[in-house]
Design goal:
Layout (H helix, E strand, L loop, with lengths): L2 E4 L2 E8 L3 E6 L13 H4 L3 E6 L16 H14 L5 E6 L1 H12 L4 E7 L7 H15 L4 H12 L2 H4 L2 H12 L7 H13 L13 E6 L8 H9 L4 E5 L6 H4 L1 H12 L2
Parallel strand pairs: 3-4, 3-5, 5-6, 6-7, 7-8
Antiparallel strand pairs: 1-2, 2-4
């Protein structure tokens, strides 16, 4: 799959499927491989554009503080290079922050907007959790130990009811050949911590679905209400018995909700 030099970095991306394009923007610390449970379902009738954001995966991971504006411009530069004038934009968690900036700064490029388990502004409790994750990386805590401390914020009790599943996820993550560096995580985290669109949401014009997990422990559910209330004509849809990373834990529900909104 290709890497393209744009805006001072080498950016890796994948394209899967054909049809109306969907730009998929992943969350903090995740790259294009994290859409593994979405690609088969969404690529049947759509062209999926799957970038690794700056700071993760096979894209450059410069030691700097990034911003969501900067990462949104990376995405626009990629669409330009691919000669894609307009796409549906799906942003998960940090990707939802970036997607908001895309819709605000480049409304003509966004057909439909899907904001999943995200916020206009990360509340203090979420900031504290994420800053602690960075501190553990800086303190060189064993990766397996870090993961075991993070997973309860991302998954529900049902997931932990299968210890073999938990161990397999940790093992797969530890064996992943493109791990995120501490510098990459710090740069992405800086983008999350400085993001604030609370006073701009009313300017988003794209048809919007706010898709939120009812059992999200990382981002309080009040944040989904804020997005759906302040974005004109936005729809709010809850997924029951789902945690923050429900795109992995309950992918069928995730995929169904996405396709129902994109292909009504």
């Amino acid at each position: 799959m290709p890497t393209i030099h744009l805006r001072g970095i080498n950016l890796y991306y994948e394209i899967q499927g054909t049809g109306n394009p969907i730009l998929l923007l992943q969350g903090l610390g995740l790259d294009s491989a994290a859409w593994v449970y979405q690609i088969p379902a969404l690529s049947q009738q759509h062209q999926l554009i799957l970038p690794d954001h700056r700071g993760v995966g096979r894209t450059d991971q410069p030691a700097a503080s990034y911003t969501t504006e900067e990462m949104a411009e990376d995405a626009i530069a990629l669409l330009d290079a691919l000669e894609i004038d307009q796409a549906d934009v799906l942003g998960f968690s940090m990707g939802g922050l970036i997607a908001q900036i895309l819709a605000l700064h480049h409304p003509e490029r966004v057909n439909r907007l899907l904001l999943v388990n995200t916020a206009a502004y990360l509340p203090p409790v979420t900031q504290h959790i994420l800053q602690n994750w960075l501190q553990m990386m800086q303190d060189k805590v064993r990766p397996a130990t870090r993961m075991r401390s993070q997973l309860p914020w991302l998954f529900t009790d049902r997931f932990f009811g299968d210890p073999q599943q938990v161990d397999q996820l940790i093992q797969d993550s530890l064996q992943y050949p493109y791990p995120q560096t501490t510098a990459g995580f710090a740069g992405q985290l800086a983008a999350c911590l400085t993001h604030d669109t609370r006073n701009q949401l009313q300017q988003i014009s794209a048809p919007t679905l706010v898709l939120a997990a009812a059992a999200d422990r990382l981002i309080p559910t009040a944040q989904a209400h804020k997005l759906a209330t302040d974005i004109p004509n936005a729809q709010l849809q809850w997924v029951a018995q789902a945690g923050h990373n429900f795109l992995w834990e309950t992918p069928a529900a995730f995929n169904q909700a996405v396709l129902a909104f994109i292909d009504p």
